[in-house]
Amino acid sequence: MTTDQQTPQGGVKHRYRHEGPQKHIVVFIFSIVLTLIAFAAVAAGGVNASFAVILLLVMAVLQVFVQMGYWMHLKDKGHMLPILFMIGGFFVAGTCIIMSLYWVWWD
Amino acid sequence: MTTAHAEAANGTLPHEPEKATLEGRNKVLAFWLFLGGEAVLFGTLFATFLALRNQTNEGPTANELFHLPLVAAATFILLVSSLTSVFAIQAMHRNRPAVLRNWLLITVVLGLGFLGLEIYEFSEYIRHEEFGMTTSAFSSAFYTLVGFHGAHVAFGIVWIGILIAQLSRKGLNVITAPKIYVSAMYWHFIDVVWVFIFTVVYLLGKVG
Q1: Assigned domain for B33 exists
Q2: One GO biological process from the UniProt record (chain A) (predicted)?
């Protein structure tokens, strides 16, 4: 975050506003809550198995999105190539997983 | 570039020092490419695990084996360490090498705690549950996936430890900053992989 100011000498003075820790603590608390929901759903038992699978996967994907967006700065400007690299990596990983599940379950 | 070098020369650190030089920017970008490759690598291990998780060969099953409190403790430790490495980078951006070093040290100590729990967990399985590497297809897939993640944590501890030593020898500048930034990215990625491990391996193992 920069705000450039014209100095009397004609030069450009840079003034930086450093981000505080608040945003990251919010992400941390959000991650803790998602983790607690996932563990509680399993520890409590009695939750329908196929519902639990969907719930757990949604909690995991949400947490990963938030952490990669804020802690790894993927949501910031100028991250098109990193996002592309990660989409590429997750696409191949997902293809491998779907392929082997299909392979095992297809009978 | 020129302003970055001028600022480095007169003792001040540029804003976001990890991206102040072309070399620094290249390092960060190339590291993202590496993380894409890491995602593929862990993806193949997850694929193997998911395919073989029910092939227990009359050995222990996931439901009999796993204890959630231990997994929850390991998860909490790694999540906190990811937050402390965010604080380390924020201290770096404010040009406070001492604060940066302290947060990196806390991150390393938490990483050691996580690794200790994992070693304890594996040794319990081997000694008391007769669940070794060759017990079943499930055990092989489990140790390969979770052990590979643990090896990444161990590597990260050594790496960040060396960077702490280098930081106190050479100080914080546009050459050391990209190294520290990239190691923090690595540490976050290790935490992201763990989110999938505790979900897919441990929690789904309990659900069945």
Answers
A1: yes
A2: electron transport coupled proton transport
> Do B40 and A21 count as a contact with CB atoms less than 8 A apart?
no
Cβ–Cβ below 8 Å for B199 and A71: no
pLDDT digits (tens, 9 = 90+) for A2-38: 444 444 444 444 556 777 889 999 999 999 999 999 9
CATH code for position B196: 1.20.120.80
Amino acid at B106: I
In a domain, B4, yes or no: no
Closest to B86 (Cβ–Cβ): which among A14, A24, A59?
A24
What SS3 state is found at A61? helix
Q: What is the pLDDT of residues B141-153, one digit of tens each?
A: 999 999 999 999 9
Distance CA B198, CA B71 (A): 7
Domain ranges (residues) in chain A? 2-75, 77-107
Q: B194 to each of B52, B74, B79, how far by Cα in Å?
A: 19, 10, 9
Q: What's the mean pLDDT in B86-105?
A: 96
A35 interface with B at CB cutoff 8 Å: yes
Query: Interface pTM (ipTM) of the complex?
Result: 0.89
**Does a structural domain hold residue B154?**
yes
10 Å Cβ neighbour count for B145?
23
Give the pLDDT confidence score for residue B157 in this predicted structure.
98
Residue B7 belongs to a domain: no
**Smallest Cβ distance to A57: which of B72, B199, B206?**
B199
Residue of chain B with shortest Cα separation from A97: B47
